[in-house]
Amino acid sequence: MITVKNLTKNFNSFSALKGINLRVKKGEIYGFIGQNGAGKTTTMNILAGLSRPTKGSCLVNGKDVTKIKHPSELHIGYLPEAPRFYPWLTAFETLEYLGNSGGRRVAAARIKELLDWVGLSEAVRRRVGGFSRGMKQRLGIAAALIHDPELLIFDEPASALDPEGRNDVLNLIKKLKNMGKTIFFSSHILSDVERVCDTVGIIIAGKMAAEKPLPEMLKEDILPSYDITLQKPIDSGILDKLSQIQGVSKVTGNELNLSVMTDAFFDTSLLFKFFVDNKLAVNSFARRQNRLEDVYLQEVNTNDKQS
Ligand SMILES: Nc1ncnc2c1ncn2[C@@H]1O[C@H](COP(=O)(O)OP(=O)(O)OP(=O)(O)O)[C@@H](O)[C@H]1O
Ligand SMILES: [Mg+2]
To answer: Contact at 8 Å (CB) between 9 and 51?
Structure first.
């Protein structure tokens, strides 16, 4: 649904995008993550037809974004970073106005349904000028969906929302996927991205640092760690001996809960043997799951070292 090749964007002498490549496949949820100022909004504005690339090609819904006369030709639903509306219109009137643009008509029932969907059914007749940031964000999502587009581009859809609101929006994004839509969204809330995305792209300082299916991203080469809970408290002498096992790089924790960091090819039977030899009963033993945050921070650190 989106193919970006060697996309470059310069603002005068400043290069915001330095030749990025990315691909969003039909029917997937793609999470676009990166630090403040990495270039997420710049990329999304170009994909939405609101800003021209300096170089490179962008196909959105099969259309070249540099060849369109008006953003509406892309047939996408776009939620900008800070959606703005006419303050004197009500939520209903806003969607009516946006929905009936360009010679199209949208039924009142559809508008009500959408407002209900985004959790604004109580505010249908209220003026948008009095809306909170989170309410505007919800209205922005409804506005993006008004013409029922196949491709949705959401710039930070959940950032202005409270935890409950974030949960609502993530569920909504999942529902949209189940309806067959494709969603490309940016976020710096990594746990949100981890919860819903099929593919993750990391942008660092205008360059793509990684783009992979989420499960693959989480299999990145992060050194293994094991979390162990013991049945009885141990003394610090045992901790010292534990950290001397071959391949163990660090042991942290207290007398009952331990975390053991190891080399990449560590043989866990050495740990089990240690517990048996020292007559230590183990309640639980688990390899820690990689979190997107660990992978992301590793990418950022690598980039810092290189630059
Ligand atoms: N119109 C503009 N003129 C000059 N510089 C710009 C313009 N728009 C963006 N930039 C610069 O381009 C870089 C990327 O900005 P962008 O808004 O794309 O970042 P972002 O990844 O969306 O960050 P955030 O997480 O803060 O939203 C920043 O250094 C920004 O200052
Ligand atoms: Mg942004």
So the answer is: yes
CATH number assigned to the domain comprising residue 244: 3.30.70.100
249/166 same-domain check: no
On the question of pLDDT at 82 being above 80, the answer is yes
Query: What number does the ligand 1 atom closest to the CA of 35 have?
Result: 25
Domain count, the chain: 2
Supply the pLDDT for residue 206.
95
pTM of the model: 0.82
Pocket around ligand 1: residues whose beta carbon is below 6 Å from it?
11, 14, 16, 34, 36-42, 81, 188
Confidence of residue 96 (pLDDT cuts 50, 70, 90): very high
User: Would you say 6 and 59 are in contact if contact means Cβ atoms under 8 Å apart?
Assistant: no
| Three-point CA angle 101, 106, 108, nearest 5° | 130
Residue 212 in contact with residue 200, Cβ under 8 Å? yes
- Residue-wise pLDDT for 223-279, tens only, equals 778 889 999 998 888 888 988 999 898 888 888 898 888 887 888 899 999 999 999
For 109-121, write each residue's pLDDT tens digit: 999 999 999 999 9
Distance (Å, whole) CA 87 – CA 75: 26
Same-domain pairing of 258 and 186: no
Range(s) of the domain holding residue 249: 225-287
Instruction: From 4, 15, 40, 207, give the residue whose CB has the most ligand 1 atoms within 8 Å, as the site to mutate.
Output: 40
Beta bridge partners of 162: none
How far does residue 93's CA lie from ligand 1's centre (Å)?
32
Identify the domain boundary among 217, 246, 264.
Answer: 217
Q: Which ligand is nearest to the CA of 206?
A: 1
